[in-house]
Amino acid sequence: MASSTPTLDNIQGLIVRPFTHPYSRHLLFRMDDAAAGRALLKDLSPLVTSAGHWGEVKPVELLNLSLTYNGLTALGVDPVVLDGEMGWKNGFADEFKRSGGINPDSTGQAGFAGNSDPATWWSDGTPKFTSSEIHLILHLYAMETPQLDDFTSRIRKLLSASITELRPMIGGETLDSYRFEEGGVHFGYRDGISQPVINWPGLSGATPNSDFRDFLLGYADAAHPSAPPGEFGADGSYLVFQVIHQECAAFNRLLREAAASLAANIPEGIANAEEWIAAKLLGRWRGGAPLANSPLADVKSLALDNGFDYGSDKEGRQCPFSAHVRVTHPRTQTVNALAQPAPRIIRRGAPYGPPLVGEVDDGVDRGLIGMFIGASIAKQYLKITKWMHRNDFSDVFVDAAEQDPIQGNRTLPQASGKFRIPDARGDLALDGVPPLVKTKGAAFCFLPSLSTIQKLGDGHWPRAT
Predict the structure, then answer these.
(1) I need a surface site. Which of 71, 141, 304, 325 has the fewest CB within 10 A?
(2) Phi, psi of 107 (to 5 degrees)
(3) What would the pLDDT profile of 404-451 be if each residue is shown by its tens digit?
């Protein structure tokens, strides 16, 4: 690595900036021949979109790519690069190296059990496959559906017979998503509001609250180790790719039933009890306004507000302690010594499947394609998911078995279906909150730099023969 600071033109764009093109598609591949895989990367390399400035005209199509540990192995990368010298020194992080099985998380922290058991993943796939067979994921973005279809067609023409496309949806369909209006997602919330503000060199904007080394490999210092170190990993990041099914009918029913059961305790001035319940579950109103700054109404001018903490809400009466946004980003709330520091992660992704209105499940698969980016899967993604499944990382929690009501896996052993809403007149409780999400597939991936993609395509870092 020649520079002590990142070069945006060498970083894949998704790491630095959200892609706001409305249509996206994620193509999954298995590579059964190293030479064919390297040839595909060589062809794709000029198409990969960097984090550099686009200029005055937004490109009509964007492409980023990620590789699993099994994918790097399938490309014939030297085991010393992947696993380190003597199998442990200066290789990829352990959680990435162990991610090549059917279940990419051997620690259990991600909650891949119960209704999210990997044995049920990719069950609609054509051909049938498991996460261990995912080697390469292409992340395509376009302004219009015809452009996305044309882009997909051109990419498929690059495939050799030894590269198999793994189509995960019913009927062999691709995994597509579409950005709802104003960044909305299923359950009706506005998404993508709170992201870490990172001190990317060469970019100006809001005052940073996060160091780029928390999200980018290759720039280690005393506080930010980098695995792997050196040229191969530099300007790359880890990405957890997760398909999250959402039970929209059950969520709508929960809001109605909770509003009825708590009717006598809904604060005066609340215009819509169901919307108040929805806000308590998330920690923001569905329009985006945070409960910490607007506890009684969804104020439109606060839709993108991130200027709040929980210093004036130490009892959780504005935003419940287990609300999704408070669990995943506790801000100034005290975190137990062994749980420090509180992690941040870059979130990308978009909803898949059509919206559902009402409480009748139509049997259509819908949810969120989650893409979680950081410099450490263990210290960021796995830590946050562990907190969502068991709220035991701060003394503010009364019941350690309580979960994030939106993303918690309530089919795990000893999980609680209770959600507590602190109130000055006596705490309110929702009992029997149903499972609202389940993981339908996941892969732990690596987002290489543009130079590493190019060199992989050219045959660098070969396995010794």
Answers:
(1) 304
(2) -85, -20
(3) 999 999 999 989 999 999 998 889 999 999 999 999 999 999 999 999
The gap from C-alpha 146 to its chain's centroid, in whole angstroms, comes to 27
Q: Which of 233, 33, 41 is nearest to 137 (CA)?
A: 41
d(CA 343, CA 25): 29
Q: How many residues does the chain have?
A: 465
User: Taking the model in full, what pTM does it have?
Assistant: 0.96
Q: Would you put residue 237 in left (φ > 0), alpha (ψ -120 to 50) or beta?
A: beta
- The tokens 């520079």 sit on which residue? 3
| C-alpha distances in Å from residue 64, one per residue of 20, 219, 308 | 14, 22, 33
> Distance of CA 114 to CAs 104, 149, 417, 436, Å?
15, 36, 14, 13
Candidates 197, 238, 148; CA nearest to 18 is 197
CA angle centred on 61, ends 55 and 67, rounded to 5° = 110
Cα 381 to Cα 7, 33, 96, 344: the distances in Å are 25, 31, 12, 9
Q: Is 321 helix (H, G, I), strand (E, B) or coil?
A: coil
Q: Tell me the sheet residues that pair with 27.
A: 138
Contact between residue 162 and residue 31 where contact means Cβ atoms under 8 Å apart: yes
| 320, 326 Cβ separation under 8 angstroms | yes
Residues 6+ apart with CB under 8 A from 123: 440
Question: Using an 8 Å Cβ cutoff, are 246 and 180 in contact?
Answer: no
Tell me how far apart the alpha carbons of residues 274 and 255 are, in angstroms, rounded to a whole number: 5
Q: Which residue has the tokens 């280690």?
A: 220
Q: Within a 10 A sphere around the Cβ of 181, how many other Cβ atoms?
A: 7
